[in-house]
């Protein structure tokens, strides 16, 4: 898939959110989209998924099956988890409930099968959002901050699922403002700054790098990570337990 000289702004006379984006995503690639709050990560992902259309330029060769997981799953729909996934499966041309059952179990949604979407917690609703994107094996999987609100078990599933999609030849684009990139080996990084996108390959074992561990107050974690990134550092992860 290719971004061909893509420009995007939300309204005429507004500043461009993205300018002249020229990028290629190869089949089987994992791309992690980084950038400060409001930099344009979600916008870029929505352009990739086809949810937004470029104002100038084009997104070309988008795979036929796109799995799109928005930052917030729209849970204000009058269905239970099972009803919603069954309907989505039917729209995607699937017959029988095999894929629905598979993803309900894999994502730990069994207890919420008959719960209305509106009554789900944010994290559980996110899992339904993930399940609907995976019912049919996607040629392109686009995940906007998929770790937000997920429990620790579900968080570990994300790298596994990404690995399975890429092993099957699908490409994955995932935005990440928490530094969970450490769980995604061989990812390419796109950093969105001032409307443009820089691309580089993440090399966790780069001999020019060392890993510095720091402890900060829990409440300062987000601002500290933002400052570190703004200074050009790579945030590899966040953990709450003490080092042994
Ligand atoms: N629907 C919209 N209409 C108008 N402006 C928007 C809309 N959505 C986003 N924007 C603006 O576009 C810019 C980029 O937003 P975007 O959501 O893509 O950033 P982001 O990097 O994903 O941020 P975050 O990390 O906070 O999710 C921001 O200035 C935002 O306020």
Please tell me about this protein's structure.
With 244 residues, the protein is an alpha/beta fold. It has six helices and nine strands; from the N terminus they run βββαββαααβαβββα. It has a single domain (2-203), classed as P-loop containing nucleotide triphosphate hydrolases (Rossmann fold, 3-Layer(aba) Sandwich). The strands form two sheets. Strands 5-6-7-3-8-9 form a six-stranded mixed sheet, sandwiched between helices. A three-stranded antiparallel sheet has the order 2-1-4, covered by helices on one side. A hairpin with a 2-residue loop joins strand 8 and strand 9 (196-201). The longest helix has 16 residues, at 152-167. Residues 10, 17, 35, 37-43, 177 line the site of adenosine-5'-triphosphate (ATP).
**Overall number of strands:** 9
Rg result = 18 Å
The small-molecule ligands in this entry are: adenosine-5'-triphosphate
Oligomeric state of the chains in view? single chain
């Amino acid at each position: 898939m290719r971004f061909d000289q893509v420009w995007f702004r939300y309204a005429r006379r507004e500043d461009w959110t993205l300018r002249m984006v020229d990028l290629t995503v190869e089949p089987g690639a994992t791309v992690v989209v980084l950038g400060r709050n409001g930099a344009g990560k979600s916008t870029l992902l929505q352009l990739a998924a086809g949810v937004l259309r470029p104002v100038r330029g084009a997104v070309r060769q988008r795979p036929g099956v796109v799995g799109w997981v928005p930052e917030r799953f729209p849970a204000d729909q009058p269905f239970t988890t099972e009803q919603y996934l069954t309907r989505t499966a039917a729209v995607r041309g699937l017959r029988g409930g095999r894929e629905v059952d598979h993803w309900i179990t894999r994502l730990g949604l069994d207890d919420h099968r008959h719960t209305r979407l509106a009554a789900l917690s944010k994290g559980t609703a996110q899992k339904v959002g993930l399940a609907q994107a995976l019912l049919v094996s996607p040629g392109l999987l686009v995940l906007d901050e998929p770790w937000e609100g997920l429990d620790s078990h579900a968080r570990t599933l994300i790298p596994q699922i990404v690995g399975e999609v890429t092993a099957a030849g699908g490409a994955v684009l995932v935005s990440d403002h928490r530094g969970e990139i450490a769980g995604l080996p061989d990812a390419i990084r796109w950093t969105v700054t001032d409307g443009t996108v820089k691309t580089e390959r993440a090399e966790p074992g780069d001999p020019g790098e060392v890993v510095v561990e720091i402890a900060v107050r829990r409440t300062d974690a987000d601002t500290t990570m933002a400052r570190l990134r703004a200074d050009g550092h790579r945030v590899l992860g966040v953990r709450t337990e003490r080092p042994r």
